[in-house]
Sequence to fold (118 residues):
Amino acid sequence: MADTKNETEDTKTEFEELQEQLKEIKDQEGIIGYILRDQKSASIDLKDPRRIVDYAVLSSTAFDASHEMTEFLQTGEPKKMVLESEETKLLLMNVNNHRLSLFMEKDVNHNKLYKKLK
Fold:
């Protein structure tokens, strides 16, 4: 039992540390916000809270689509996925078994953020 408790405490610590990193990143110019999920909880911080559902649906759909594509192509889980529109982009990645969706303006360097968070 002690091992399971320690693993849970370690996971919470990783989740909290990641949240702290994301709070710093969110203050950067061009960052729209993020959604961080694990199996039991989610943390959402978006500049426009009225659009939480829209961003959550986009995030979930993109993760599901990437999983289906990699399963079909038998390529293994991707390290990151980037979706771009004319004005914005979305960086999707897994960080220590947490699903992270980071929304940003198109001119933000997503590779720099990816390297900082992985």
